[in-house]
Specification:
Elements: H1 3-19, E1 28-30, E2 39-42, H2 47-50, H3 54-68, E3 72-78, E4 81-86, H4 88-101, E5 113-117, H5 129-147, E6 151-158, H6 163-175, H7 181-184, H8 188-212, H9 217-223, H10 225-238, H11 242-266, E7 272-275, H12 276-279, H13 284-292, E8 297-298, E9 304-307, E10 315-319, H14 327-342, E11 346-352, H15 356-368, E12 377-382, E13 385-386, H16 402-419, H17 428-448, E14 456-457, H18 460-463, H19 471-486, H20 501-523, H21 527-546, H22 555-578
Parallel strand pairs: 5-6, 5-11, 6-7, 11-12, 13-14
Antiparallel strand pairs: 1-2, 2-4, 3-4, 8-9, 9-10
Helix pairs in contact: 1-3, 4-20, 5-20, 6-8, 6-10, 8-9, 8-11, 13-14, 16-17, 19-21, 19-22, 20-21, 20-22, 21-22
């Protein structure tokens, strides 16, 4: 709310004049719903200057603000909490501005460049539920950054090389019989994922056979013929062997077609895609430069390390004794590549929290190397997604496949919509589109409404429920508003004689919505937007059920309620756009 800035300035004046304090941090918060008020100031920090009881200090500040800020209607005090209530006129003006000007979001980004890397799949398997959380989180934070004025680059780094990719290639060579996506009827990424699972099953079988012969488990892993073939294939790929590279290109091509289909259905996109096969050697020159400047040091075996013990960590290898890179080396080089290309002010990595240590190390290394962009690195760390059945494992084929999950939830959306009788008068194509919007929206919202940092349980059935904190509930609220607006003529904003408490609560939520977006951007947390939109939808349904809108006899009140409904619809659509979720006009 814009009034917060004015209140902060006047409160600074108040404590300066009342208690002779020149500068002080002042923060207002939303008033506890148990108490009357709109914003609350905690006065306990001022007591050592006022030398008075909390209640008396709050009274003095409240009286000062009431004289200086005409929007204040009244205030009340609960111990050391000064609860301020604004006038109906203020709230009506807030809604009028919303109607006339739309959603006004302060542009704190100042058009600074920000690169967000998300998705980062491996080309040996299809995308799964964990990838969905990564993708929707990355795409949504890009939308939010864009809304607050950043120049955003959506970036994907595809892991298309390495020993795990060669596992699928070896399995395909041995058991594939020239199978293709067309001949198998499988999407390309599913076909390759099948051989990744097949490799692991045969690899584990081979290990057990070697152990049965009296060979130690670790030695058995090394002596496995499948693993030896895989290592040999990786060497051939790195040497540019024609047949190996041709197979690699063919299989990766199938996977990319599959990924593109999934990305399109999920509604995510990228401005720039990097491939590990092009970047895995990057960083080696930087390591040599760091060695000369003594940022790194070489051990007797020729391997190169950095000592991070002064920062409370340990020593970290950046180049093996045989001269090959490790992941951190590649990331150093890729960070430099990005900066040279985009000159970004910030770069955000959307990666699971199992990599927290890795990105802490990466930032420290970049700082030691004197990279000007190091402070702009941010790891948007998110928690794992669990299912009622337990943890997912790609090698064992127990992951929840993204495509199958989307099919399942869309089918559930169809079933529940038909049971609720919400399909009258819609063509088969309209219904098909509706089920897709509801199903995909249900998955995305369920994953985004939870703070990214938290590990979460995903329940497909609960996500598609038309009641509660779900996308279908909010989408249905939007269609209710759309239907209401179709049933009336366009009206001008009018001022009602009295502002009903239910109306006021809804106006407050809409007025505070831009602040929510700013907070979500500052905290890298789309769940704040998701839950704000839910609260608006919930409040509107109370308003819709308890107050007459189109049937209201008083002209001004009727026009006001139609305008308020329209503003709610715009806010819901805007919020869902930031989350990458569509809203239907009918259902």
């Amino acid at each position: 709310m814009r009034i917060t800035t004015k209140l902060t300035e006047k409160t600074q004046e108040a404590i300066s004049e009342l208690y002779d304090i020149s500068e002080f941090d002042i923060s207002f918060e939303q008033t506890n719903p148990k108490f009357e008020g709109d914003l609350t100031l905690v006065v306990f920090p001022f007591l050592k200057y006022s030398k008075k009881r909390p209640e008396d200090t709050a009274e003095e500040i409240g009286n000062f603000l009431t004289k200086q800020v005409h929007e204040i209607k009244s205030f009340n005090i609960v111990k050391g909490f000064l609860n301020i209530q604004f006038s109906d006129e203020y709230w009506l003006n807030e809604l009028k501005d919303h109607v006339n000007l739309g959603i006004q979001i302060p542009k704190i980004g100042d058009n600074n460049k920000i690169v967000v890397e998300y998705s980062s799949p491996n080309t040996n398997k299809p995308l799964h539920l964990g990838h969905i959380r990564n993708n929707v989180l990355g795409y949504s934070i890009c939308q939010i950054f864009d809304a607050v004025g950043f120049d955003v680059v959506k970036n994907n780094l595809v892991n298309d090389r390495g020993i795990h990719i060669c596992k699928s290639m070896v399995a395909y060579q041995k058991w594939g019989n020239n199978e293709t996506p067309e001949s198998s009827g499988l999407k390309g990424d599913h076909l390759i994922g099948k051989y990744y699972v097949k490799f692991d099953k045969n690899y584990q079988k081979e290990i057990q056979e070697l152990i049965a012969k009296g060979i130690d488990k670790e030695e058995a892993k090394e002596k496995s013929s499948l693993m030896i073939e895989t290592r040999n294939m990786l060497q051939k790929w790195e040497q540019g062997d024609t047949n190996t590279v041709a197979l690699w290109k063919q299989m990766n091509g199938w996977v990319y077609e599959g990924f593109d289909h999934t990305y399109k259905r999920l509604g995510v996109s990228f401005d720039k895609i990097y491939y590990e096969s092009d970047t895995y050697l990057l960083g080696k020159e930087i390591v040599q430069e760091g060695l000369k400047s003594e940022v790194f040091f070489k051990k007797e075996d020729g391997s190169i390390w950095i000592d991070l013990t002064p920062e409370g960590l340990d020593e970290k290898i950046v180049q093996r004794s045989d001269g090959t890179s490790v992941y951190i080396t590649q990331d150093i080089g890729t960070a430099d590549l990005k900066y040279n290309e985009f000159k970004m002010d910030k770069f955000v990595y959307v990666v699971g929290n199992e990599q927290d240590y890795h990105f802490k190390v990466l930032q420290l290394i970049l700082k030691r190397l004197g990279k000007s962009y190091a402070d702009g690195l941010y790891h948007l760390s998110y928690g794992m997604v669990d299912l009622p059945e337990g943890k997912m494992k790609s090698r064992e084929g127990t992951v929840v496949d993204a495509d199958e999950l989307m099919d399942e939830v869309v089918a559930t959306a169809k079933k529940q919509t038909e049971e609720l009788g919400k399909t009258d008068g819609m063509s088969s194509q309209e219904l098909s589109d509706l089920y897709e919007v509801l199903g995909i929206g249900a998955i995305k919202y369920y994953l985004l409404k939870v703070d990214a940092k938290k590990r979460m349980m995903y329940d497909p059935k609960e996500s598609i429920d038309f009641q509660g904190n779900t996308a279908p509930f909010i989408q249905y609220t939007y269609t209710r508003i759309a239907s209401l607006l179709r049933a009336t003529e366009q009206v001008n904003f009018e001022v009602p004689a009295i502002l009903n408490p239910i109306e006021k609560e809804l106006v407050k939520l809409i007025s505070n919505y831009p602040n929510v977006i700013l907070s979500a951007a500052n905290n890298y947390n789309p769940s704040e937007v998701a839950n704000a939109v839910y609260e608006i939808a919930k409040s509107f349904n109370k308003f819709y059920h308890e107050l007459s809108i189109l049937g209201e006899q008083d002209h001004n009140t009727r026009c006001f309620r139609i305008s308020l409904s329209n503003s709610v619809g715009h806010t819901i659509k805007h919020g869902f756009n930031l989350l990458g979720i569509q809203v239907p006009n009918r259902m």
